[in-house]
């Protein structure tokens, strides 16, 4: 109950601040909310199920390109779910192969698949726009009458998607299946001998993770009107890992706070220096070395054990 | 340049083989070597060959020092946990790349070759320097092979690889071995880079391709099998066919990447490796 | 017969870990598996539970051929296994550990049934505790409780009393007696007092083959067993 109230409070707070936010932050927070959905998806695989993937950009990009390409000829209301499904389907396909491996091999295999996906986008330049990507026309970004190129509708749409994703995530990790996901992370052999199929559990978790990633990619394309190959590059596989590590792996709220903090950290640092990658690199090192549980993970350890 | 990239791959495989660490920053050590080569040759007075010799000594040492430092400050504290070290070396990758960008700049810069010589064979001309590179890389590989199989240092490394606690019990300073191996792996990448800068130019983003190729070699050779990697590195290094695949257009890269992923899924012991 | 194994074989390299073993379990019995170290006991129950693939031979469980079924499917058919080296979820609460087992067999009211399973082994007072912080004896008990919570038809216990104090062993014996005859119990055990006290039948493995099988009195009297194992 306490947990549900807390999550609803966050959604409420995000609804409330939109009236006070200056336009610059208005767009940024909308962006963070969409990226947080991506991070939540990453967290389902990494934080809860223990699958450390280095290839999630593939799922994000699958959603982004599916929606971005479909919206040329179909209404956004149809293109959005198409992108969501594309993310899930891509994750399912990758999972069928990659989940035969574990640990370091799983990391490298996912990295390789994502790299192949990135190169594929470059290869089919005439369709995908190659390196430069393509811009979505304003008319294409009308979602059921909402103009997503305008600040207000964009913020509310982002909040709606984020809110649904957050509550679904909460429900998932408190469900029986959520408990089995954690069980796989904690002790795979024991879980097998309790009758749970490790491969099936991980495949479902990865597919859900892909669904979230695809949703974020699809929403990003519609809201910010740009589809580009850089979103499929390794960088975009590393970023959700960073957000989740920062916010706290295996916590529902961690991905949002990680994405928010990191976004503004890079934003602030880029006004001082152009070394944004340095911030990413240092943050990764510091987190791995000194705070492997992240912000919310540490809070949970220090007393708030009810935190989901 | 096949031989050179094989050198890089051996460095990566050495680190994985002995330490079980997948060093994602390996390509950046390669890049650092190239950048260091540019600095040394541009500051060094005298004829190009003198600068080149100096570079060949100084650049690998400098890079190895950076690597040893990274091992002490970061990897050791993580207890060499495989997954945590990958995340850490990703962080390292960003830091090194950014450092190179800030200190060296975004331009690609050429380094003069130590000598100009063209061999004119009946059907094609060949740069004498390229032949020198192949020979030099071959020599270094041979040296690594001899060190690993014949010398006491190699014995210590292999003992540490097989059984860390026992090696420790026999009085081997595992920390020093690890730092040494990590430095040596990075140093090999740097040597490779020094050899190649007169042909390619030094650029802060140049680490990506050698990293990918090293991954391919290490995986095909069998994860963690040092012998397999050396064999695979030599085989792949010497077979122009595979390398031309690598430098061919994007499609070839896609296929190569997928191929490596599938090898890892279906034959994790590598194509040449023995049974697990 | 709840379980029938015929000609079970498994070699590791040149080593004959288990060779052409025939083995039957009668519904509701407590069956002990004994033998010297390295006789292949753990390998043998590994074959039954599906943790180790069968090389040759067949296993039938409650009439169905399960020889090729993966371990988790066998668990769902009712074969539960507790590890020789305690295997629980050390970072989850005791309650969550057991809930994972209760949830697997299907529960209308997960909370209440988990609590009941906790009470059965006397761990209800520690439900919120992190399982890894339990005393060793309690961790073993938790593992057995997880096996029992699956409501298995066959419960395989691999050296369950190892490292337990005498009082804990008595409690364990009472617990095992309380689950038969609904559940058949197969038990690997070194403590001969426990074996003689609990078992209806005993099978002796030696060097991967069945040396003898029968009721405790008969095994005790068997000369071959005495020379090979009981120290003759």
Automatic annotation (TrEMBL), chain A:
Any one Gene Ontology molecular-function term assigned to this protein's record: branched-chain amino acid transmembrane transporter activity
Keywords, sorted A to Z: Cell membrane, Membrane, Transmembrane, Transmembrane helix
Topology class, membrane: Multi-pass membrane protein
Keyword Transcription regulation carried by entry: no
Subcellular location per the Swiss-Prot or TrEMBL entry: Cell membrane
Cellular component, GO, one term: plasma membrane
InterPro entries documented for this protein: ABC_transp_permease, LivM-like
Segments crossing the lipid bilayer: 77-97, 104-124, 155-182, 203-229, 241-266, 278-299
Origin: domain of life: Bacteria
PANTHER family in the record: ABC TRANSPORTER ATP-BINDING PROTEIN (PTHR30482:SF17), HIGH-AFFINITY BRANCHED-CHAIN AMINO ACID TRANSPORT SYSTEM PERMEASE (PTHR30482)
Protein name in the entry: Branched-chain amino acid ABC transporter permease
Species this protein is from: Cereibacter changlensis JA139
TrEMBL record, chain B:
Cellular-component GO terms for this entry: plasma membrane
Any one GO MF annotation of this record: transmembrane transporter activity
Subcellular location per the Swiss-Prot or TrEMBL entry: Cell membrane
Signal peptide: none
One Pfam family in the UniProt entry: BPD_transp_2
Keyword Transport applies: yes
UniProt keywords, alphabetically: Amino-acid transport, Cell membrane, Membrane, Transmembrane, Transmembrane helix, Transport
Main location: membrane
GO biological process terms on file: amino acid transport
Membrane topology according to the record: Multi-pass membrane protein
The keyword Iron is assigned to this record: no
Transmembrane segment boundaries: 51-74, 86-106, 126-148, 177-199, 211-238, 245-266
Protein family per UniProt: Belongs to the binding-protein-dependent transport system permease family. LivHM subfamily.
Protein name in UniProt: Amino acid/amide ABC transporter membrane protein 1 (HAAT family)
Provenance organism: Cereibacter changlensis
Automatic annotation (TrEMBL), chain C:
GO cellular component, one term: plasma membrane
Domain ABC transporter: 3-232
Keyword Oxidoreductase among record annotations: no
CDD domains xrefs: ABC_Mj1267_LivG_branched
Coiled-coil stretches noted in the UniProt entry, renumbered to this chain: none
Keyword check for Isomerase: no
Xref: Pfam families: ABC_tran, BCA_ABC_TP_C
Alphabetically ordered keywords of this record: ATP-binding, Nucleotide-binding, Transport
Secretion signal span: none
Protein name according to UniProt: ABC transporter ATP-binding protein
């Amino acid at each position: 109950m306490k947990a549900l109230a807390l999550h609803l409070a966050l959604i409420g707070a995000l609804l409330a601040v939109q009236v006070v936010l200056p336009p610059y932050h208005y767009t940024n927070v909308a962006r963070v909310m969409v990226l947080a959905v991506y991070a939540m998806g990453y967290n389902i695989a990494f934080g809860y199920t223990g699958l450390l993937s280095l290839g999630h950009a593939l799922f994000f990009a699958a959603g982004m390109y599916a929606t971005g390409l479909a919206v040329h000829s179909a209404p956004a209301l149809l293109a959005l779910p198409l992108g969501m499904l594309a993310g899930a389907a891509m994750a399912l396909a990758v999972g069928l192969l990659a989940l035969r491996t574990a640990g370091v091999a799983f990391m490298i295999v996912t990295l390789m698949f994502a790299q192949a996906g990135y190169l594929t986008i470059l290869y089919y330049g005439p369709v995908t726009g190659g390196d430069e990507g393509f811009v979505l026309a304003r008319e294409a970004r009308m979602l059921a009458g909402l103009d997503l190129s305008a600040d207000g509708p964009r913020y509310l749409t982002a909040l709606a998607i984020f809110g649904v994703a957050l509550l679904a995530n909460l429900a998932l990790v408190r469900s029986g299946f959520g408990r089995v996901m954690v069980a796989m992370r904690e002790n795979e052999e024991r879980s097998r001998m309790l009758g749970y199929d490790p491969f099936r559990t991980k495949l479902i978790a990865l597919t859900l993770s892909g669904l979230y990633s695809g949703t974020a990619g699809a929403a990003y394309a519609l809201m910010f009107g740009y589809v580009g190959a850089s979103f499929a590059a390794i960088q975009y596989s590393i970023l959700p890992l960073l957000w989740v590590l920062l916010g706290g792996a295996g916590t529902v709220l961690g991905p949002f706070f990680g994405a928010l903090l990191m976004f503004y950290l890079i934003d602030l640092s880029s006004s001082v220096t152009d070394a944004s990658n340095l911030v990413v690199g240092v943050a990764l090192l510091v987190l791995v070395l000194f705070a492997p549980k992240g912000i919310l993970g540490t809070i949970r350890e220090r007393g708030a054990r009810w935190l989901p | 340049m096949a031989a050179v990239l094989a050198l890089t791959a051996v460095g990566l495989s050495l680190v994985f083989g002995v330490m079980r660490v997948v060093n994602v920053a390996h390509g950046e050590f390669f890049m650092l070597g190239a950048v260091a080569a540019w600095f040394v040759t541009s500051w060094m007075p005298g004829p190009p060959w003198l600068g080149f010799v100096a570079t060949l000594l100084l650049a690998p040492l400098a890079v190895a020092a950076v690597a040893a430092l990274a091992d002490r400050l970061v990897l050791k504290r993580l207890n060499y946990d495989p997954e945590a070290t990958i995340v850490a070396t990703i962080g390292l990758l960003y830091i090194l790349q950014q450092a190179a960008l800030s200190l060296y700049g975004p331009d690609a810069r050429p380094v003069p070759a130590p000598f100009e010589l063209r061999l004119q064979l009946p059907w094609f001309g060949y740069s004498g320097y390229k032949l020198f590179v192949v020979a030099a890389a071959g020599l270094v590989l041979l040296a690594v092979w001899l060190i690993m199989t014949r010398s006491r240092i190699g014995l210590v490394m292999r003992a540490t690889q097989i059984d860390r606690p026992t090696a420790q019990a026999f009085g081997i300073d595992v920390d020093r071995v690890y730092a040494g191996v990590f430095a040596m792996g990075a140093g090999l990448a740097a040597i490779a880079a020094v050899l190649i800068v007169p042909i390619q130019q030094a650029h802060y983003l140049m680490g990506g391709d050698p990293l990918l190729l090293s991954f391919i070699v290490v995986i095909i050779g069998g994860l963690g099998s040092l012998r397999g990697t050396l064999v695979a590195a030599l085989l792949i290094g010497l077979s122009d066919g595979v390398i031309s695949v690598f430098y061919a257009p994007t499609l070839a890269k896609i296929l190569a990447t997928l191929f490596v992923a599938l090898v890892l899924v279906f034959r994790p012991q590598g194509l040449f490796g023995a049974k697990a | 017969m709840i379980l029938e194994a015929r000609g079970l074989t498994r070699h590791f390299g040149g080593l004959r870990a288990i060779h052409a073993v025939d083995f039957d379990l009668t519904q509701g019995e407590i069956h002990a598996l004994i033998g010297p170290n390295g006789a292949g006991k753990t390998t043998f129950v590994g074959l039954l539970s599906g943790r180790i693939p069968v090389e040759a031979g067949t296993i039938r469980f409650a009439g169905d051929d399960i020889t090729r079924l993966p371990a988790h499917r066998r668990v769902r058919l009712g074969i539960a296994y507790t590890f020789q080296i305690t295997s629980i979820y050390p970072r989850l609460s005791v309650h969550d550990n057991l809930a994972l087992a209760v949830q697997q067999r299907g529960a209308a009211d997960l909370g209440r049934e988990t609590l009941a399973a906790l009470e059965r082994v006397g761990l209800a007072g520690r439900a919120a505790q992190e399982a890894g912080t339990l005393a060793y004896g309690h961790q073993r008990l938790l593992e057995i409780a997880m096996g029992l919570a699956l409501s298995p038809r066959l419960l395989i216990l691999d050296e369950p009393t190892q490292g337990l104090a005498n009082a804990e062993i008595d409690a364990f014996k009472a617990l095992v007696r309380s689950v038969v005859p609904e559940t058949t119990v197969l038990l690997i055990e070194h403590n001969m007092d426990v074996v003689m006290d609990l078992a209806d039948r005993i099978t002796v493995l030696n060097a991967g083959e069945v040396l003898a099988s029968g009721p405790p009195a008969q095994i005790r009297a068997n000369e071959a067993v005495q020379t090979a194992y009981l120290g003759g």
